[in-house]
Amino acid sequence: MGGFTSKYMPHLFNDMVNGYRIQKEVIDEYYLDTQQKEYDGISIMLLNTFKTCLYNLFNSKFDKSEIENLIERYTSNEELIECLYNEGSIKYFLVEYLNAIRNKDIDYLYELGKAMYKKRGLKWLL
Fold first, then answer.
1. What confidence tens digit (pLDDT) does each residue in 92-122 have?
2. Are 27 and 38 in contact (CB under 8 A)?
3. Which of 29, 59, 60, 84 is most exposed by smallest CB count within 10 Å?
4. What's the angle, vertex CA 34, arms to CA 28 and CA 36, rounded to 5?
5. Residues 6+ away with beta carbon under 8 Å from 44
6. Are 50 and 81 in contact (CB under 8 A)?
7. What are phi and psi of 15, to 5 degrees?
8. Which of 97, 60, 58, 102 is CA-nearest to residue 80?
């Protein structure tokens, strides 16, 4: 019952960061003319998928402290931090979301993941 996002995926964060790295290598080699535009796209994708990772943590059997520790680890990731300063990301995302990652506001990010989890749970029940 449900799709992939209804089950905890322990490697989701690492997989998405690795995908970002690979895409960045391809852009650096083949898309020099449109490099900034391409960086905008993959930065937005990574930061958007990070929200999915927050939601994903609530599909686990982790307690609050374990979830908060993982969020802290995620927000220390070099690639995620790099995306915060991308022009496209700055235009696309709310400043509160970007600042929460930048400032490692674990409480804000925890509540964001929890809210998405509850919202999707309600949709599933309907």
1. 999 999 999 999 999 999 999 999 998 876 5
2. yes
3. 29
4. 75
5. 83, 86, 88, 89, 92, 93
6. no
7. -65, -45
8. 102
